[in-house]
Amino acid sequence: MKGFPDARPERWIGAIALIVISLISLGNVVTRYITGGSFSFTEEFSVFLLVVLTFAGASVALRRNRHIRIGFLERALPPRFRQALIIFQALCGITVLGLITWYGGKLAWQEYQWESLSPGLGLPQWWYLVWLPVLTLAMLWRLLQQTRARLTGELSDDA
């Protein structure tokens, strides 16, 4: 994939999320070992960061054409039908990601308007939810890049 723009922002977001999860977990283990108690905020942050890590990683996987799929049918089809299948796959992905972006954005906006607070720390709930539409938009962009590269033959689907 030389010459392709990589999913660098998503890689950084994922790496930072993973580092922070590791540090929070390590701090919690050390604190529990020394004091017998644990930090109460760790679960809320860890779950949030794990979701961010998942969506960022999925975006990187889309850009690098590394999502799990059965390529047997793609490789067995003649080029014209293969392109139709690639377009169909892209349309299905666009539909799903578009729905997640729309409803995730709507949920984040409603939480902002309602001034909902998180159950553990009492932080605004939209702080956590706003990442859902942002990262699914990134995934949508990476899906479009991947589809274009697959259709033009710049990205190989070989096993």
Model description:
It is a multi-pass membrane protein. Belongs to the TRAP transporter small permease family. One of its GO terms (cellular component) is plasma membrane. The chain is mainly alpha-helical. The protein has one domain. It has six helices and no strands. Helix 1 runs antiparallel to helix 2, helix 2 runs parallel beside helix 6 and helix 4 runs antiparallel to helix 6. It is elongated, with a radius of gyration of 20 Å. The two termini are 15 Å apart. The model has no long low-confidence stretch (mean pLDDT 90).
Helices and strands in order, then pairings?
Blueprint: H1 8-35, H2 42-63, H3 72-76, H4 79-114, H5 125-129, H6 131-152
Helix pairs in contact: 1-2, 2-6, 4-6
Provide the β-strand percentage band: under 5%
Largest sheet: none
Task: Quote the average pLDDT.
Answer: 90
Report the radius of gyration as a whole number of Å: 20 Å
Number of DSSP helical runs: 6
State the domain count: 1
Unreliable segments of 5+ consecutive residues: none
Helix content: over 70%
N-to-C terminal Cα separation, in Å?
15 Å
Order of helices and strands: HHHHHH
Q: Give the strand tally.
A: 0
Shape: elongated
Q: In terms of structural class, how would the helical and strand content be classed?
A: mainly alpha
InterPro entries: DctQ (IPR055348), TRAP_DctQ (IPR007387)
Subcellular location: Cell inner membrane
GO molecular function, one term: transmembrane transporter activity
Protein name: TRAP transporter small permease protein
